[in-house]
Give the backbone structure.
Amino acid sequence: MNLDQRIENRTSLNLYVLLKDNVELLQQNVGEIEQELEVEQKLNPFFKLKALKPPRKFFVNKEDFSHLLAYNPSYKEDLIRVIDEELSAVEKDIAKEIVYSLDEKGFISEEALNQIKEYFNVDWGLVEDARAFVMEIEPIGYGSLNTFEYMELQIRAYYKDKKDYIKYLKDPSSIKNMPKEALEFFSKLKKSPAGVDKSNYIPSKVDAAIEIDQREISYDIYDNYLECNIDDTALDIEDKTLRTYLKQRARNYVEAINLRKRLLKDIIRLIVEKQKDFFLEDKPLKSLLLKDISNTFGMSISTVSRLLNSKYAKTPKGIFRLRSFLSRESVSYKSQDEILSLIKKLIQNEETVYTDKDIEEILRNYGINISRRTVAKYRTKLGIANSKKR
């Protein structure tokens, strides 16, 4: 085996190890990865995150998702039900307003709490009492201000034997004495209270932006604005074992994030090149499968799948899940999300009950050629039974 082959084999091995050890970092969307890195920066003095200000092209309004299935905030309905049963008078109204003000992760901002206080013209004590009540409703944590408050709440509620670890969330200077078991414990805690169904998740920021200027297609990824580095000037940690562990952990994060950036860039570039006619000419999507991407970049299909999952791209044609650009055949320019949304509207029509065959024919009028069997499959995916058959 010559030197070039040995280097190539070693590079492939390192890539495999990085992918294997950082599966979660690969599959997280931009909101989750930011949250993960912020937690690591607070708890690991050797890891530094420089979050550059991303351009507006990555930020979206809920209206931009009108072609997608709406996120169903059912957890809010459960919270309201408990509030109705347990509270009364103005405290009930304040608690409900807190629930209505939660973001998609289940957090509330201090600004929102300020507005609630002013609207009801009450003191902070009453607002905080109502928030504390909401936070204690199972599953706990809705209404937390941020990830660190939520993590502390989990420890107090479920891991009372780990109460000593709370000081590391509150006092950065105490990190120099933190055992590595504490950091590993923090890594396993949930980072946000809302258990989001990612198939219907609507983010406030997208992972990629695809733009067209004079028929030239350009693209960018949000990860470019997350710079991760190792800080060798970190505070002095006397425990050499802990120091070595934290520094290596920081190095692994930096390598994993850089790898994630590279793989995402490569995949977006391939999508843009393959689906050029879709963006420029409104033509149907060309055939592009997971295995095509896998073979092109030498990654496993499961790795490609994780990279595409729960990630979105903002384009001149609207906002799409990255998976929407994968297609087995060019039957329509409509993404699966758009087709699901149309079927959902038809099924939920209160005046007319449509069968799968009816829906098949209606979709054909939209230029969407799918079989009755596919309609039935989509109906199952939506969790809506066929109440009338022919």
Q: What stands out?
A: Residues 1-13, 66-73, 196-200, 329-333 have pLDDT under 50 and may be disordered.
